[in-house]
Amino acid sequence: MSRTFRQYSVIPGFGLTLGYTITYLSLIVLIPLSMLFFRTAGMGWERFWSTISDPRVVASYKLTFGASLIATLINVVFGGIVAWTLVRYKFPGKTLIDAMVDLPFAIPTAVSGIALTAVYSKNGWIGQYLEPMGFKIAFAYPGVVVAMTFIGLPFVVRTLQPAIEDLHKENEEASASLGATRLQTFRYVILPAILPSLLTGFAMAFARALGEYGSIVFISGNLPMKTEITTWIITQKLDQYDTEGATAIALVMLLSSFAVLFTINAIQWWISQRHRGVS
Amino acid sequence: MYKYRGAIFQVTILVGLMMCLGCQPGSSGNTGGNAGGNTPSKLTILNVSYDPTREFYTEFNQEFETHWLAKSGQSLTVDQSHGGGGKQARAVIDGLKADVVTLALSYDIDQIAEKTKAFPRDWQKRLPNNSCPYTSTIVFLVRKGNPKQIKDWNDLTRSDVQVITPNPKTSGGARYNYLAAWGYALRQPNGNDETAFEFVKSIFKNVPVLDSGARGSTTTFIQREIGDVLLTWENEAFLSVNEFGPQDLDIVIPSMSIIAEPPVTVVDENAKANNALDVATAYLEYLYSPVGQKLAAKHFYRPYSPEHADPADLARFPKLELFSIDEVFGGWTKAQTTHFNDGGVFDRIYAVEKP
Fold first, then answer.
1. Is A241 helix (H, G, I), strand (E, B) or coil?
2. Can you name the residues that pair with B164 across neighbouring β-strands?
3. Which residues, other chains included, contact B86 with Cβ-Cβ below 8 Å and sequence gap of 6+?
C-alpha cells in the first residue's frame, strides 16, 4: 500500500468521476439490493428461517446450484474449445460463427426457452430421437442444464478469447522443442496463462445461470421437489402476495452468489500470488 | 488492463443478478396502454383478465366500443391484458392501472380490494349473480378416440395416465381443477378429507409438467403432445377443439364437476383517475345485456341469462352434476387458506414422505 491514493493521469477529473461512479452504482445496484435486506428484516428470524429452509425451497437450491455448476463446467470445456478455434484458426465463415456466439446474449430469454423446449420435447427435432432412447431432456433435470448452458456460453467464450490471443505461439514451440509432450505443453504452458480468464468466465456464467429465469421456466416443467428453480419459487411467492417470503429467498440467492464471486476472486488472487512467488 | 476488466465484469455480474432477482415483480409484460385519457372525447380503459378469456373479450370489446360510440359519442378503446390469474391480480396490486378486472376467482379480486383499497370489500354485491356474468366448469380434454379410456375423475389416478394441469399456486383454473377432484372424492361412498387427500395426491403424482397458467398447459398438451388428459376450463376445451381441430382431440365430461364462477368488478380508484368510472361500469353492465350474454355463450361460457343466448350455443353445454365452492369448501377464502397457501394441503402433496 505504498501507492498514493490519488494517481496522476493524463485525463483530469478524478473527483468528479469517482463521485459519479459511486452515485451511479448506488442508484443502480446498492439501493435496490439493500431493499432486499430491509424488506426481509420485517419478518423475524423464525419465519425467515422456516421460509428459506422449507423442503421445497431447499430442493430448488439443490437443482439451481447443481445444474448451474454442471452447465458452467460444460461451458468451460466446450466454450473453451470454441474460443480456441475462433482465435487460433482461420476458416471461411469465421466472423459469422464468432457473431453467433453472442446470440444467447441478444435473444430474449423467453424466446430461447420456447425454442429449446420445441427442439428438446418429445415431439421436437432432437427430442423425438432422444426420448425413445430413455433420455428425457425437456421437463426434466437435463432441460434445466441445457437452458443454463445456452445462456452461459458467451460469457466463457468472450472472456477466454483475449487471453488466448495474448498467448505467444513461441512459448508452445519452445516447450515442444524442450521435449514436452502435447499434454505437458497444455498443462504447464497454456493452462496457467489462461486460467485467470477461465475462472472469470466460469464465475460469470455460473452467476448468470443461478439467476436465469425466462428460458428455464419453459423447459423445466416446474414440478415441486423435482424441477423447480429458485427464481421460479420467488415468482410463485409473489403470485401468492407473499412479498416477504420472496425477498427472503432472493436474499439467500444474493448472498450465495456473492459467496461464489468472492471465492472465485480469492482463488484468482491466490493464483496470482503464487505466480509472483515463482517468478 | 486485466484488473480493470475484472472490475467491469464484477459490475456486470452484480447488475445482471439484480435484474434477475430484483426486477421480477415488474416483468409481467403487461400492456399498460393507458394514456391518461383526460380528453373526454377519446378514452382508453384497461381490462385485466385471466388466461382463457382472450377470445371472448376481443369480440366483446369491439361490440362495446361500437355501442359506446353510438350511445355517448365518445370514441373508446378497451385494452386487454391476460395471464395467470394470480400474476394478473398482483400486477394490479403493484400498480397496473386496470379500470376493470375480470378474473377467474373472487379470492384474487378480494386480495386486490384488501391490498389496494381501491374499491369496497363487498364488491361482489355490486352486480347480479355475485358479479359473475357467466360461469364455467372443469372438463377433460383427451386425444382423439380417448385411447386411454378416461371417463371420470377416478381414471386420473391410474398409473398409466399422465395428467396435465397448471399449478394451483399460480393459476385460478388449476385451483378449480384441484377442488373439483377433491369434491368428487368427497362425494364417493365413505369419502372424507383423508380419502380426498390421497385421491388428489395420486392425481398429482401423474402430472409431468406444471405450467403457471391455463394457456401454458393447453400448449403443453396440444403442441408438445405431453400427457393423456388435460384438465381445463370448459370454454378452453371447446376453444382448443375448434382451434386445433376435432380430428385430434375429444372432450370428456366427467360425472360431476365444480361450478366455476369468474367474477368481474370495477377498480374504482383507477377508473376515477382515468375519468372512466361511468364507462367502466357500463362496460361490466353490458356483459349482462343480451349482447354480452349471447357472446359469452358463443365463446363457451355458460351465460347468467340463458334466454338471451343462441339456443344452438346452449345446446353445446353438456348437463352434469355441479357443486360450488361455497357448498363444498365454505367459500374461496377458506379454500385458499386450507389448501393453497404455503404450508397448506397442496404443499403436503409434494412434501417428501417420511418413512
1. coil
2. B230
3. A239, A240, B108, B169, B170, B171, B172
Average pLDDT rounded to a whole number, residues B43-69:
93
Tell me the pLDDT tens digit for each residue of B250-291: 999 999 999 999 999 999 999 999 999 999 999 999 999 999
For residues B199 and B264, the answer to whether their CB atoms sit within 8 Å is no
Between chains, do B224 and A253 touch, taking CB under 8 Å as contact?
no
pLDDT reading at A147 higher than 70 = yes
**B135-260+320-350 falls under which CATH superfamily?**
Periplasmic binding protein-like II (3.40.190.10)
Alpha-carbon gap: A187 to the closest alpha carbon of chain B (Å) = 22
- Between CA B336 and CA B350 the distance in angstroms is 17
| Range B42-132+262-288 has CATH code 1.20.81.30 | no
- Asked if B224's CB is within 8 angstroms of A138's CB, the reply is yes
pLDDT of B26 strictly over 80: no
Helix (H, G, I), strand (E, B) or coil at B164: strand
Q: Residue A111's closest CA among B29, B12, B19?
A: B29
Contact B209 A222 (CB under 8 A): yes
- B145-157 average pLDDT score: 95
Q: What is the mean pLDDT of chain B?
A: 86
Chain B residues close to A224, C-beta within 8 Å: 210, 347, 350
CA-to-CA distance for B81 and B30, rounded, in angstroms? 6
Burial readout A239-255 (b: 16 or more C-beta within 10 A, e: otherwise): bbbbbbbbbbbbbbbbe
The predicted structure's pLDDT at residue A6: 61
- What ipTM was assigned to the predicted interfaces of this complex? 0.70
All three cell numbers of B308, joined, read: 338471451
**Domain parsing of chain A, residue ranges:** 62-228
Cα–Cα distance, A99 to A58 (Å, whole number): 38
Task: With beta carbons under 8 A apart, name residues in chain A contacting B14.
Answer: 29, 33
Of residues B248 and B36, the one with the higher pLDDT is B248
- A62-228: in CATH 1.10.3720.10: yes
Q: Does position A241 have pLDDT exceeding 90, yes or no? A: no
Average pLDDT over residues A87-96: 91
- Tally A–B CB contacts below 8 A: 122
Residues of A in contact with B352 (CB under 8 A): 55, 225
Residue B20: predicted pLDDT: 45
By the 10 Å C-beta count (0-12 exposed, 13-18 middle, 19+ buried), B253 is classed as middle
Enumerate the residues of chain B whose CB falls inside 8 A of the CB of residue A242: 342
Distance (Å) from the alpha carbon of B149 to chain A's nearest alpha carbon: 22
| Residue with cell string 360450488 | B324
**pLDDT at residue B346 is higher than 90:** yes
Which residue, A29, A48, A57, A61, is CA-closest to A248?
Answer: A48
The band of B13, judged by pLDDT with boundaries at 50, 70 and 90, is very low
Task: For CATH 3.40.190.10, list the domain ranges present in chain B.
Answer: 42-132+262-288, 135-260+320-350
Q: Do B84 and A241 touch (CB under 8 A)?
A: no
CB contact under 8 A, B22 and A32: yes
- If you search the block for the grid coordinates 420445441, which residue do you land on? A118
pTM (predicted TM-score): 0.77
Tell me what pLDDT residue B172 has: 86
Interval B282-334: pLDDT, tens: 999 999 999 999 999 999 999 999 999 999 999 999 889 999 999 999 989 89
Q: Which of B16, B212, B347 sits opposite A208 (nearest CB)?
A: B16
Parallel, antiparallel, or unpaired: how do β-strands B321-323 and B256-260 relate? parallel
